[in-house]
Amino acid sequence: MKDKILPFVKQSIVYGIGGLAIPLAGILLVPIYTRIFTPDDYGVINLVQITIMFLSVILVLGLDNASGRYYLEYKSDKEKKIVASTTIFFLAVVLLIGCLAFIAFSEQISRLIFKTGSDSQYLVIAAAALPVGICSTLCLNLLRFNLRPVSYTILSVANMLLTVCISIVLVVVLKIGVKGVFLATLISASLFLIINLIVTRGYFSLAFSLQRLKDLLWFGLPLVPYGIAIYLMQNCDRYFLAQFVSLEDVGLYNLGGQIASISSLFFISTGLAWGPFVYMTYKEDNIGAVYTRLLNYFVAAAALIVVGLSIFSHEILMIFASSNYYSAYMVIPFLTLSLTFFYIGLRMSFGINIAKKTLHFTWISIVGVAVNVGLNFLLVPLYGMMGAATASLISSVVWCILLVYISQRYYEFKYSLTSFLGILTVSLAIICFAYFLLIDVSWQNILIKIVLIGVFSVFVYLFHLVGNDELKYIYGLFSKMMKKQ
Predict the structure, then answer these.
(1) E strand or H helix at 9, and its extent?
(2) How far apart, in whole angstroms, are the C-alpha atoms of residue 391 and residue 232?
(3) CA distances from 256 to 173, 304, 313, 439, 467 (A)
(4) Which of 180, 227, 241, 401 is the most buried (most CB within 10 A)?
(5) Average pLDDT over residues 151-161
(6) For the chain, what are the domain ranges?
(7) What's the chain's Rg over C-alpha atoms?
(8) Pick from 86, 462, 109, 66: which is nearest to 300 by CA?
C-alpha cells in the first residue's frame, strides 16, 4: 500500500505549491491591500473578480475538465496532441468572442452590480486578461497530465511572484489604485502565456479534430450548468451582501473568505494529484483500501486545518489586516467549514467521474444553489455577514451528502462514517470553546489554543484516522532528521 500512498503524498505536496499560486498571490497581497484600500474598495475588487470568474465558467464550456479526462485516457502521443490542440484552439476563439461581447456591455453590467457605471473600467481590464489566463492555465495542465509536477510548480510560482511584484509597483509605488490590481493580472498573464506555450509546445500539434471536439463537448457541456451552480453556491452571497447590506460588508466577508482559503493549500494540492491518481488506478484489484486510507488522511488533515484557522482567526487577522477589518473573524470558522465540506464532497465523489455520469454533478449543485440562494435571501437582510456565512455552510453540507451518496452507487468503497462524525464533533466543540471563551488575543489564550490543537491530534488517533503504522513512519522520519543535525 505504501508504494501507492507515498508517491501520491509527494505529488500532492509538489502540486500544492504550484496549484496554490493564484490564491496564494491573493493572500500575500492582503496585508498590503487592507492597508491601502478601504473595505468598500476591497468589496469592489472582489465583486469584479467573481464576476469575471462567472464569465470564465460559461466560456470555458467545461473543456478544461473534459480535456483532462480524454487526454489521460488515450495512450498514443498523437491522440493526446490532438486533444490538447483541439481544446486550446477552440477555446481561444470562444474566449475572444465572449470577452469582446462582455466588454461591449461592461457599463450596463457595472450599473447592475455596483449601481454605477464608473467601475466598468475594472471589468474591461479583467475581461481582457481572461482569455490569456485561461489559455495559460491549459498549458500548465498539460504539465500536470504528463506528470511533470516540478515544471508545473516552478511556472505557477513564478507567475504568482511576478503578479505580486507588479501589483506592488502599480498599487503601492505608482498609486494607480484599484485599476492596478487588474492591470497586474493582465500583464503577468500575457507574459506567462508566451512562456507556457514555449515550454509545452511538444504536447501540441497543428491538428484539429471535429470528432474530438464533439467528444470533449459531450463530456464538458453538462459541466457548464454544474460550474454555474458551483459558482453561485460559492459567490452569490457577495451579491446579496452588496444589494442588501453594503460594499463594506462585501470587503469584510471577502477577507474572511480569503483567510479561510488558506486551507486551499491542502485542498488544491490533494485535488490536483487525486484526479490523475484515481483515473489511472481505479481498475486495479484491492485499490479501494488505498482510497479509504487516503481519505482518512484527507479528513484528518482537513479537520486540523479547520480547527487551526478557526481558533486562531483573531491572531491571523492581526497579522494580515488593519483594525478596520478585524470584525471579519466572525465568519472565518463558518467559511472554512464550508470549504471543507465542499472539498470532501468532491474527493469522495470520484465514482461519478469514473462512470462518466457527470449530469449528477449538475442536479446536485442546483440543489446546493437553491439552498444557498434561499437561505441568503432569508438570512442576509437580517444577519448580514453571519447570515451569508451560515447559508454557505449549510449548502456545502447538503452538497457533500448528496455527492457521496450518489458516488457510492457507481463505485462503492468503505469509509468510516463514525470516525468522520466523531472528529467533526470534536472539531466543533473546540471551535465553539475558542470562539466564545477565548476572544481576547493574549499569550495565555494562545497557549490554551495550542493545547487544544494537541487534544484534537489525540482524537485523530482515537478515531483511527491515523494509526500505528503512520505514527511509526512519522517517528522514523523525525529520527532521521535528528540524526542529521
Answers:
(1) helix 2-19
(2) 12
(3) 27, 18, 9, 16, 34
(4) 241
(5) 83
(6) 1-19+222-485, 62-220
(7) 22
(8) 462
C-alpha grid cell for residue 31?
496585508
Between CA 442 and CA 339 the distance in angstroms is 28
CA angle, 249 then 336 then 333, to 5°: 70
Contact 289, 1 (CB under 8 A): yes
What are the DSSP calls for 117-159, one per residue?
A: STTHHHHHHHHHHHHHHHHHHHHHHHHHHTT-HHHHHHHHHHH
Instruction: Enter the pTM of the model.
Output: 0.77
3-state DSSP of 242-294: HHHCCHHHHHHHHHHHHHHHHHHHHHHHHHHHHHHHHHHHCCCCCHHHHHHHH
Which letter does DSSP use for residue 173 in this model?
Answer: I
Q: Characterise 278 by phi-psi region: left (phi > 0), alpha (psi -120 to 50), beta (else).
A: alpha
Q: Where are the alpha helices (DSSP H) in 282-384?
A: 287-311, 313-320, 332-347, 350-354, 359-383
Element holding 189 (H helix, E strand): helix 178-199
The percent of residues in the chain predicted with pLDDT above 70, rounded, is: 88
For 116, the 3-state DSSP assignment is coil
Per residue in 236-289, pLDDT tens?
999 999 889 888 899 899 889 888 888 877 777 677 667 667 767 767 777 777
Which is nearest to 467 in space by CA: 12, 15, 1?
1
Q: Are 216 and 63 in contact (CB under 8 A)?
A: yes
C-alpha span between 64 and 413 (Å, rounded): 28
Question: Whose CA is closest to 262, among 50, 23, 434, 431?
Answer: 23
- Matching residue, cell 493574549: 442
* Per-residue CA distances from 322 to 30, 126, 252, 319, 325 (Å): 10, 27, 11, 8, 6
3-state SS class at 306 = helix
Phi, psi for residue 92 in degrees, rounded to 5:
-60, -40
CA torsion through residues 330, 331, 336, 338, sign: positive
